[in-house]
UniProtKB/TrEMBL annotation:
Pfam families: SBP_bac_1. It comes from Streptomyces coerulescens. PANTHER family: ARABINOSE-BINDING PROTEIN-RELATED (PTHR43649), DIACETYLCHITOBIOSE BINDING PROTEIN DASA (PTHR43649:SF12). Keywords: Signal. SUPFAM superfamilies: Periplasmic binding protein-like II (SSF53850). Residues 1-22 form the signal peptide. This is ABC transporter substrate-binding protein.
Length: 452
């Protein structure tokens, strides 16, 4: 039943997604034996860490193994459509794909993924025991085995321009409330020519706007569903959180907020177009890179803002998964083990800079002297944010599934995207939050019928 529902969910994305692959080397994989001459196709999200591995692979992994890696890199929303389409329909176009904590348990139950514990256990240098427990738990199947290897892990926190805050005489609390952040955003809006007070994701998508918004909903006492599957999208708590979020980004948020996701906010913050940004802890490495960021060395960090809960940061891992349809499991596993290894982290540090390590997945990363120095301003708060995130109990009431910023059911990919399309429209001034949530409630009630 779930497999059929998931395929139905991705069917509407198939036509659009099929046009996005052409220029990155995707296509049928080589059928030659493992090692030299082998070619694999890797589909991944276009975040900075993935752009780094695309640059480094040829002169490191391919040089050492003879395995050619053809990368297809897509924006987050397009990646989610494409990978779901490929895996759910068993198209077999890719040998490796980046997915996350949401997909792994669902896809494992559907039998779509190779288990990876056996590969990790055979490679002593991989050191599976070094992986952070929250990452292992979120990427394991019902049998306790890993079905994806973490590339990097993250929670969420607040990032701010220290120069702006100092000029305004503002001290950002280490554990701020959302109301405190809204007040600060009003004070620093326009602090420099063209600068807005805060950047918040407004781009529709369950993993874009939906991720950040749901953490706000959680801490305001809301939830998508009660434990017994009663839809709560238009509940007073959900409405309060959504109205707060939309009002804040409309009054003091970035230009073009309805089209701004992670990538756009990263650019806005690093180019001094906004004074604050609430988003993934993994963004810090890019903000501290002087080659691409105008505020490197001048960024402050605070825990995810709260309202009614003690903490509110999300928990996520972009991870490497191997669809069962691959005919190149040996070569694909070699790539994934390397891409999640201590060796690869060292390569990034030495060639690109230690702040750019894909961190948040290994305990040993935070013991590296070079990384400790490069990540002095954000390393500790990142690790603590990951450790404090509680997917089993992220709000004020019991949940029907685990997950901080998502509901771990196949239908949420479609539900979350449709609801955030309406909320994004509210950010753009084309509809009201109340109408968006009332319409979303009807959609959520239909989903709930599958589980009641």
């Amino acid at each position: 039943m779930r497999t059929r529902r998931m395929i139905h969910v991705v069917a509407t994305a198939a036509a659009a997604s099929s046009l996005l692959v052409a220029c990155s080397g995707a296509g049928g994989s080589s059928s030659s034996g493992g090692g030299g001459g082998k070619s694999i196709n890797v589909l991944m999200v276009g975040n900075p860490q993935m752009e780094d591995i695309a640059k480094l692979t040829k002169d490191t992994f391919t040089k050492d193994t003879g395995i050619k890696v053809n990368f297809t890199v897509l924006p987050e929303n397009e990646l989610r459509d494409k990978v779901t389409q490929d895996v759910a329909t068993q198209a077999g176009q890719y040998d490796v794909a980046t997915i996350g904590a949401y997909e792994v348990p669902i896809w494992e139950k559907n039998g779509w993924l190779h288990e990876l514990s056996s590969y990790a256990d055979k490679d002593a240098s991989f050191d599976k025991a070094d992986l952070l427990k929250p990452m292992v738990t979120s990427l394991s199947g019902s049998d306790g085995k890993l079905y994806a290897l973490p590339f990097y892990g993250e929670s969420s926190f607040l990032m701010y321009n220290k120069d702006v805050m100092e000029a305004k005489g503002i001290k950002v609390p280490e554990r701020p409330t959302w109301q405190q952040i809204a007040d600060i955003a009003a004070k620093v809006d326009g602090a420099e020519p063209g600068m807005r007070g805060i950047c918040l994701r407004g781009l529709a998508g369950w993993g874009e706007l939906g991720a950040s918004l749901t953490t706000v909903v959680n801490t305001y006492g809301g939830t998508w569903f009660t434990k017994d599957w009663k839809a709560q999208v238009n509940s007073p708590e959900f409405k309060k959180a959504a109205n707060f979020y939309v009002d804040l980004v409309r009054k003091h948020g970035e230009a073009g907020a309805a089209q701004a996701g992670f990538t756009e906010c990263l650019n806005a913050m690093s180019q001094k177009k906004v004074a604050m940004w609430y988003d993934a802890t993994s963004a810090a490495g890019s903000l501290e890179d002087p080659n691409s960021s105008k505020i490197a060395g001048r960024v402050g960090y605070a825990y995810a803002p709260t309202a009614e809960t003690k903490s509110s940061g999300w928990l996520w891992s972009w991870a490497w998964a191997m669809p069962k349809t691959t005919k190149n499991a040996d070569a694909a596993s070699k790539f994934m083990l390397w891409a999640s290894s201590k060796e690869y982290e060292k390569t990034v540090g030495e060639k690109l800079g230690w702040s750019r390590i894909p961190a948040g997945k290994r305990a040993s990363t935070y013991e590296l002297p070079e990384y400790q120095k490069a990540a002095a301003s954000f390393g500790d708060i990142t690790l603590k944010s990951i450790e404090q995130a509680d997917p089993a109990d992220p709000g004020l009431q019991p949940r029907p599934t685990v997950g901080v910023q998502y509901v771990a059911i196949p239908e949420f990919q479609d539900l979350g995207t449709k609801v955030t399309q309406e909320i994004s429209a509210a950010i753009a001034g084309k509809t009201s939050v109340d109408k968006a949530l009332n319409d979303g409630q009807k959609l959520a009630e239909e989903v709930a019928k599958n589980y009641q």
